[in-house]
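[job 0417] fold request received: tRNA/rRNA methyltransferase SpoU type domain-containing protein
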Amino acid sequence: MRKLRTIEMNRLSIEEFREAPKLPLVVVLDNVRSLYNIGSIFRSCDAFRVKSVYLCGITATPPNAEIHKTALGGEDSVEWKYFEKTEDVIQQLRQEDYFIYSIEQVENSTRLQNLSLDATKTYAVVFGNEVKGVSQNVVDLSNDCLEIPQFGTKHSLNVSVAAGIVIWEFARQLII
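[job 0417] inference complete; emitting structure tokens
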């Protein structure tokens, strides 16, 4: 086997990305503090052509050198918006008929392997702070919560890793 060169991968330009059909998914970051995590999430959103990223609360916004270090330009291709309060954007998305999932461990959460999506609907997923997770107010406003099953001694994943796993599952069900 021979590794492909970048030119052989037929990647989209930023202009082509902006015009291409998007995954019907909005990623909401609820007070994510690490600039590197934010950048990594932008990079995953670019990889799966997520519609947009909503940055809320203390979540930093581009342009930022530390976000760029891990996003590698994903912050330039993926549409993003900033909101002071996560609750405001969740209420707006609900009015626009988005189905909102918070990614959190709660009573009666839906395990990711049991998720069944409808390609005619639009979705939003909320990822929370690295220490506190998704705020309870946002969980309360969500339609449901998704949980990634874990089998080791730790009870959580890094937020950018969790985002990659969840976004992949949405892409797998909705566009692949």
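[job 0417] notes: The first strand starts at residue 23 and ends at 30. The chain has a mean pLDDT of 97.
[job 0417] exit 0
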